[in-house]
Amino acid sequence: MINGINIGIILFLVGLYGIVTNKNLIKIVMSISVMGNGIVLFFISLGYIKGNLAPIINSGVEHIVDPVPHALMLTMIVINLCITALALIIIVWLHKEYGTIDLGEMK
Amino acid sequence: MMEHIPILILVTPLLSALLISMISLISKTVRIQKIITFISLSLPFVYLFFLFEELSKGIIEYNIGGWIKPYGITLVVDELSFTLLLITSIVTFLSFIYSTKCMEEKNGKFYFFYLIMVVGLFGIFLSGDIFNIYVFFELTVISSYILITYGDKKVSLKASIKYLIIGSIASFFFLFAIGLVYIKTGLLNIDFLSKNIHLIDSQTQIIIFTLFLGAIGIKAAIIPFHTWLVDAHSTAPSPISAILSGITVKTGVYIFIRVFALGFTLQNINELIMIFGAITALGGVIGALVEWDIKRLLAYHTISQIGFIIVGIGTFSCIGVAGGIYHIVNHAIFKGLLFLCAGSIIFRTGSKDIREHGIGKTMPVTLVCYIIGALAISGITPFNGSVSKSMIEISVYNYPIIWIILIFASIGTVAHFSKILYYSFIKTPKNKFQPNLKEVPYPMQISMIFLAFFCIFLGVFPNLFMDNFIFPATTSIVSDVNNISIGIIKPLYILKEWIIVIFGLLLLKIIIIRSKEIDILREFISKFKLNITIFLMIVSLIIFTLILNAYN
Question: What is the ipTM of this complex?
Fold first, then answer.
């Protein structure tokens, strides 16, 4: 069944696979991002109910989608951005120190 | 004013951090930054004093923005979080005093990140819903990733990126578990969740618990999820190592207590958790067996002590949980003390290898503080470690195998701390390169002396802390309450402790004789790369799920 929740879980596992199999640090950071996006998709789609409206209080709006997971994901995306940026900065430093971005070659 | 104290604890260091970052743009002097940090780290003691009076009336809840409980963000102070807030403010304050001299050459944004990390730590212990715990945990770890890189440049960068990769996996596991909980219950508030978690069917409960275990295992460094800890804690600057080992790892254990107290209705989780704890307790000691680097030794011992705590909490009996929580407090103090002592030794000798130290009696304060810390971590009677360790050992009398493993771990602990004592202080190295060693500056001495004082104080008067905080905290978690009074002097325990010491010294003798074989073992352990360790983590989680599935 193709829906947001299942695709989110698949993306999560793909990211995990990427972290385990890669040794290049940039690719590992990319895998972390993929894993994070899987989580975002998972949360966004668990709040979504088909046919319901946005949660803006107005006359005539009765069936609304759940806004809480969407609010959580805004926080999570910001945190994920921080982690990715920090990881890339550390990788630049590592490249200056070791001359490589491959974890296996760093001695 | 009084009712806003829970949020003030968070806001004070946060605003000070902002102020510091602004001031550092204008003036380059570190003195102002230090003064602001000093004030904002000493204010929590005042807040906690007021909170203590409020707490005697009942659990304090603070709704941010006035939104009521299941909808808004709630800060909760109960006895457990108060205990951890108190210990966090003590250790962070004393580490700051230590860092003012130890980190003298660094003038960048060190104190900014330091305060942000303190905000995160306070936030974890204050927040009343699981998503906020995630947010504050990220605040803590992101600043620790940066603070680790202030250590010895080349190695610490590598440790930092390792910690970052494994830490992100932990966060995603945690978020995934939160998502599943939210699908099934529609709740995030811990208080409400504990009433509703038994409504979830057992298959989903298994998955949720396994994901939580993966996340918490990585955060609290339970074996086999521990690999990031040793590199990160050993390469960070010493005051930061003291906080990472003393408090940040404990946040994982704290979340574990909270999650465990939610009341999963699964069979045999207690036993499985205790097995994890016992493996961790022994594995940490074996890891320390092969090390010559003083900070790596201490880092491996952190893993071992976490094992003790996890065993205590895993029993889920009154005495076990109380012992576990008291061991969190005690371990924060003596491991902080030991890391600061190690920092002092490295500060003067410039070497991390214990075979090159040979300080002798040139640093008397460090020597005495180190001995007090070592006796406390070994669990010798007048010191604080003995109380909590004996409580944990009493709680596992029904499981003899786990009890024996814990005794072996204690023997190993004694062996390693006498190993550091023997090589760093007593034995004279072959090539002594620094003849004029002297004691470290006064601020560094003061922090060590205070922590050593707490080691003795909490050991001699355990009931003071127990009756006020730890038993009320335990009774809110565990249902079967039998009040156990802790006598200090029990002849049988003292006999057991000294037998352990004798065996520990024998083990030390073996280690000294067989140092060549030990080097081979270290080579073997260092072959495990990041990919393999993450793979092993996932495999062990899958095995854990399958075992739980078979029992339920």
Answer: 0.94
